[in-house]
Design brief:
- The chain is α+β, with helices and mostly antiparallel strands.
- The chain has one domain (9-264): Jelly Rolls (Sandwich), CATH 2.60.120.620.
- It contains six helices and 15 strands.
- It has helices at 9-18, 29-45, 56-69, 104-107, 109-115, 118-126; strands at residues 20-23, 74-78, 97-102, 132-140, 150-153, 161-162, 167-172, 183-185, 198-201, 204-207, 220-222, 229-233, 238-240, 251-258, 263-264.
- It has a seven-stranded antiparallel sheet. A four-stranded antiparallel sheet has the order 5-13-8-11, with no helix packed on it.
- A hairpin with a 2-residue loop joins strand 9 (198-201) and strand 10 (204-207).
- The chain is globular.
- Pfam families: PhyH.
Length: 282
Amino acid sequence: MGIIGNLSSDQLHSFNSQGFIVLESFASPEEIDAMMKRMEQLLHEFDCSSTSIFSTKNQQQSTDNYFFESAENVSFFFEEKAFGDDGNLRQPKELSINKVGHALHEIEPAFKKFSSSEKFSSLMFSLGYKRPVIIQSMYIFKQPGIGGEVVPHQDNSFLYTEPPTCTGLWLALEDATITNGCIWAIPGSQKNGLVRRMIRGEEGVSFDRPLPMYDQKDFVPIEVKAGSMVVIHGDLIHQSFENQSPKSRHAYSLHVVDTDGCKWAPDNWIRRKVEPEPLYVS
């Protein structure tokens, strides 16, 4: 069942119980087409020649700075397996990018239109948000053959408020299946609370605790059709595996926090120069 407007009581119950819900047909084919075509243009215009060859040490330093500055930019991040031993891309840049972020929702009109739509705002208010703010957005490619693994994690680890308020919104732009790297989650795991945080310090980012071990049999796959929105509780344990198939798995991912009575942690990786505008329902 699709949704245009508020969540039903059954949907809210399922979200609170399982830690996620799937909203089918949340985005229209026209919205998906607009975002995918714009990303195709952005990739075509992206000059990656200056980032092809780095030593490991220098590349890490450059990546850190580039990563931090991406909070308010449209920045490009390569797959780990994109480069050969000679430092050059193994295949065309369009098939080498891991993701683009983290301010698509503010800068790019096609993404901004969807992210500021009334159905999107209504979804957040129906989840109990008082003053919701999109804190980051990403276009994730999950490239065929080299799309990297995303280890088990919680979104609140990276985007922490006191009290915790992060919700992940993951829109499938293409069908997501077990074969091409769909999301897997541990239903109900959000009830156990936050297990660790990523902290930004003077020397970069690090976690305050090691990654816990999880039994893979506890995860369930979330296979969805293009246009479906997966709503993810900030404390839900979720992951995705490598895409070893010949088919990509494009997605548009956003993270929202509440700014009403909630304090943004100053040691989060994102440090905005300008506070983002809250979402409203007209």
